[in-house]
Amino acid sequence: MTERPRQTASHAAPVFRFAPSPNGRLHLGHALSALLNADMASSTGGRLLLRIEDIDLTRCSQELEQAVIDDLTWLGIAFEQPVRRQSEHFPLYRAALDRLKAMDLVYPAFLTRSEVKARVSAFEREGGTWPRDPDGAPLYPKEERSLGEDERAEKLATAERHAWRLDIARAQRVVGAKLSWQETGDGPQGEIKADPAAWGDVVLWRSDAPSSYHLAVTVDDAAQGVSHVVRGLDLFHATSVHRLLQTLLGLPEPVYHHHRLILGPDGRKLSKSLDDTALSTLRAEGKTPSDIRAMVGI
Ligand code: GLU
Question: What's the domain of life for this entry (predicted)?
């Protein structure tokens, strides 16, 4: 396998982005991420973009998007206009999927999440251990990659609901084993070896929403010329998938900075359902933007 030359985003000024999903209110964890992006952009003379990650049309709303913008404005963060909304770019993600289809690297996946779960439970009841991804979810059964052409064509013809998944084994054969990224964050630093196979055959196009997080984020970081991805350590391992997709699609490679997470009183990552750390709640209690900076430790 020949090693491909590494493509690096080259821009006069560094480009940062904050990319929240408007499916709930922003909390202290988002504040840390947004403020770090803003501080790094200002200390490097860089640009700061806002991307609204609203591919999940059932969970995201216009009101929540406005609330995100209000919270960020209150924090004193100014983003370049226009704001990019993923829901306005589905054809772009579709084109990327079509390229991967033309390379024969994706396949229609017909099992629902509960069917996968049932298969995994049956296997584990027999004493086996089913492989899990870095988030703990069971990998999609490998044998589904190789459904017969006839069976696949028949299912597609009857418009059976399906997602599109990446055939990770084929994708890795195309890219080779030497996939890595440059990391400057709060976890491991330097050149990090990517391990996309840990995720199995990831979903690139959901059956219930256009596109998937992985495909949209990869396409958008390139479309927006993002040179520095600053986000939480919870997305550290997802970077392996993003580097694989960038390489397959011939897209440039940003530098990554995965920052520490703000944990709740139970020691777990904050979630949008924890109301007491919502920026809107803290603001209503009389906290100021500098209190928020102090609370997140910057
Ligand atoms: N939209 C993702 C989130 O809210 C962040 C994506 C990213 O920064 O790559 O968790």
Answer: Bacteria
Which atom of ligand 1 lies nearest, measured to the CA of 242?
9
**Ligand 1 pocket: which of 16, 217, 226, 233 to mutate (most atoms within 8 A of CB):** 217
From CA 53, how far away is CA 83, in angstroms rounded? 11
Residue nearest ligand 1's atom 7 by CA: 19
Q: 138 in a domain, yes or no?
A: no
Residue in 235, 245, 258 to alter for ligand 1 test, most ligand atoms within 8 A of Cβ: 235
Specify if 131 maps to a domain.
no
Q: How far apart are CA 67 and CA 61, in angstroms?
A: 10
Question: What is the domain count for the chain?
Answer: 1
Residue 244 domain flag: yes
CATH number for the domain harbouring residue 50: 3.40.50.620
pTM equals: 0.92
Rounded to whole angstroms, the Cα distance separating 125 from 107 reads 29
Q: Which domain holds residue 177?
A: 15-107+166-295
Give the CA distances from residue 97 to residues 24, 198, 214, 225, 245, in Å, rounded to whole numbers and listed in that order: 28, 21, 11, 20, 10
Residue with CA nearest ligand 1 atom 3: 20
pLDDT per position as a tens digit, 154-205: 888 887 789 999 999 999 999 987 899 999 999 999 999 999 999 999 999 9
